[in-house]
Design brief:
45% of the residues are buried. This protein has a single domain (28-357), classed as Alpha-Beta Barrel (TIM Barrel). The longest helix has 24 residues, at 2-25. The chain has helices at residues 2-25, 28-41, 67-72, 99-111, 139-145, 147-165, 199-216, 233-237, 262-283, 302-313, 342-350; strands spanning 45-50, 55-56, 59-60, 75-76, 78-82, 115-119, 177-180, 221-225, 248-255, 286-294, 318-321, 354-357. It is α/β, with parallel strands linked by helices. Helix 9 links the parallel strand 9 (248-255) and strand 10. It has 11 helices and 12 strands. The strands form 2 sheets. Strands 1-5-6-7-8-9-10-11 form an 8-stranded parallel beta barrel. Helix 6 crosses helix 7.
Length: 358
Amino acid sequence: MKKIAIIAVAAATLASCTSKKAESALSPADQLRQRLESTVNDKKVLFGHHDDPVYGHEWAWEEGRSDVLATTGEYPAVMSWDLGALELDSVKNLDGVPFVRMIAEVKAQDARGGINTFSWHLWDPVTGLDSWQTGDSLVVSRMVNTPEGIAAYNTQLDRLADFFLSLKRDNGERIGVIFRPWHEHTGSWFWWGRDLCTTDDYKKLWTIMRENFDRHGVDNVLWAYSPDRCDTAEKYMERYPGDEYVDILGADVYHFGGEEGTEGYVRDASSTLGVAVAEAASRGKIAAFTETGCESLVIPDWYTRVLLPIIGKQPVAYVTVWRNAHDKPQHFYAPYPGHPAESDFKEFHNNPTTIFVK
């Protein structure tokens, strides 16, 4: 019996070691992909918030603070960040977040078991226009079709690639993250939007970027494709760069118009997510509600009455709401202590399907 027990222990130890070796053989991006797939398989949804631990409603830059933490006792499971101005070699992003602080918070979020995702509101590398300057319809064309435009774009991408490669744990392992570039392209409020560049030129933004990141050996990024609201699969997939370039199929749909806008929001969010989920399933990808929210939470039970039923019907890995600005009193998407939506948000947090992180 003793010999059998020893053999059993040895077998278990070998199996454990084999499992750990297999996991360590995966790239950081693949490890993150497995986590997200497991979340969907478990019928759970990770909750995310933009710029959560660096500023909030009427406060900024304090260490260890978070409006979500203050209301629920936990941080968001997903923290969203923006890389805008990194391409200019700036020390702060477009919202004033120091990149050094951002990196520290990314590491802290990873250490507590959370996930990080990034968007990029960049400046045009040729003319210097910010993301919202849409008067020039040739911005993307110059970036991807002219030698000087491609060179300038690659200079920006070099800085981004170096940034992602710098995201490491204390033991030197790179941290797997999500990157969501060229988002909301089905609208036209950014210079890479539908009415401002051709389908082929939009796809080139992705291909040139991936070629650059591959040259740098970036292996810790999952790529998210996130159109704004779409009511058909044709519209959603029109500018899809290809399965080899995308890991996550997302949707960016906001709730406008208060109570009167609820029906339209539920319809548009459900239809866009429905397409994302169906396409993700057919392509072996992950679906997510990549950006959403109701500004000022003018509907106090928005989280449980409006958002929760939407994500409850769609197998998405995570849902992310936008930021709580410290310098714009009405610009917030997660409640803070004392706000009328606080109790509803706590109920949303306590729902067995939502995941936050201590």
